[in-house]
Hints:
This protein is 31% helix and 25% strand. The protein is α+β, with helices and mostly antiparallel strands. It has two domains: 2-18 and 228-415, Enolpyruvate transferase domain (UDP-n-acetylglucosamine1-carboxyvinyl-transferase, Chain, Alpha-beta prism), CATH 3.65.10.10; 22-224, UDP-n-acetylglucosamine1-carboxyvinyl-transferase, Chain. It has a four-stranded mixed β-sheet with strand order 21-22-1-23, covered by helices on one side. The radius of gyration is 21 Å and the shape is globular. It binds ligand EPZ. Ligand EPZ is lined by residues 22-23, 26, 93, 119, 121-126, 159, 161-164, 187, 302-303, 325-326, 368-369, 396.
Amino acid sequence: MEAFRIIGGKPLVGTVRVCAAKNAVLPILAACMLLHEPVTLNGCPYLSDVENMLSLLCALGCRTRREGKTIQIDPKGADGCVMPEALSSALRSSIFMLGPVLARNGMADFAYPGGCEIGARPIDLHLQGLRKLGAHIEEKHGRIRCEGKLRGAHIHLDYPSVGATENILMAALCAEGTTVLSNAAREPEVNDLANFLRTCGGRIEGVGTGTLTIHNSVLHGCTYAPVPDRITAGTLLIGAAMTGGRVTVADAVPEHLLALTEKLKEAGCQVLCDESGVTASRTGKLLPISRLETAPFPGFPTDLQAPMTALLTQAVGTSLMQEKVFENRMLHVPELKKLGADITVQGNSAIVSGGRPLYGAEVTAKDLRAGAALCLAGLCAQGETIVKNVRLIDRGYARFEEILKSLGTDIERIERND
Length: 418
Ligand code: EPZ
């Protein structure tokens, strides 16, 4: 199993560019099943999740080709409706394909994607929305079989689910008439999917407002560059603040990071947004944050909760971090405690008594963002830290160790037998 070996004590310093957002590329790839013409996507990162999604598209009859960070997808003749079990259980995001495959071919037969480390990951909101669009859905033996002709409807989501918003948005574009989707997710990646679909000719109103009006549309191919990855950008800005360095993320979008940058300032860091990008630095002491909770956009992103909790271990005083989006996203805490952090977990709240030094140890990534948090903590720890199970980190951060090394830190990828 591969691991990272980190020698702590060096601050993150420098300028980086981030690739297209994983959580924008994945639904955009799924959306290609709505099309009958080729699509070219630029700036796409090498991530295992992206490669798995390309395999799913091929299994459904698409032809795909990658040249560096450019991916070409030709969905002509992609009449597949049955998602192979092995593929769909390997990638939770396969569920994004349900709406597009059903809308394109009138039928979709998928395995339940199942839960993961951070939660049960139910899909009830996805299925409720597709049923309201007229889909007949049968759930048995761990599979979901959908069929029927879709027609527009008024759908109100009980919760602004990112995936459910994206699934319903894609299906509604090929439903008869018009669909109004309220309490829709407003994450930048959702907006980027909508912008991709508009580039393909999709008639969508209200992008970013929480209420989407989606009209039946004739779609065509396009060339598109998905939005930069705000979670990778945020992780690196937190790393700069945590290590007392200075990092500029050249293509970060300030409005996508506002919840984070406001909290970094509250923690005593300097944040600059200008034509060179978004820069975070810290010269004085880190300050504790009395209460921080994750929420749907524009609230503090759950995907930055673990890296921010790692930062709070270095802020002198008591901080409270509350995870309000997923039910089991404190898996990084026991691993941070192995490095010497003083954190008490009560339900989905972490009470951090910060300011204690961290000491290198062997730790294990339990989900991709937790793994990134452990890397940041290792950069601050005295001595050597081994972060195991980095294949989870590879799912969401392309060659993370190379980015951190380019910012002046001592990290390398090693092979471990355990
Ligand atoms: C997307 O997951 C992201 N994944 C997640 O990123 C991200 O953490 C999450 O949105 C929240 O921003 C991708 O885009 C591929 P949700 P998704 O549906 O769509 C509950 C990462 O690290 N829910 O908004 O699954 C659900 O259980 C990953 O990059 C239902 O109850 O998120 C959760 O508690 C992790 N029923 C909450 O809503 C449903 O039908 C948020 O889930 C759907 C969701």
